[in-house]
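Write out this protein's structure.
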Amino acid sequence: MWKEKSMYGRTYMGIERTTFLIDADGKIEKIFPKVKPEGHAAEVLEAIASAS
């Protein structure tokens, strides 16, 4: 997702990592904003298991 970010009082445009979990009908089931790579795959797998 492209959004305005800030660091050290300076604003700039950048990418915010976001994961979307989409069901078989194409409906967004869950949104994971501000994704960090560490542990994210396990979090997504847990959400898939609980959605089924």
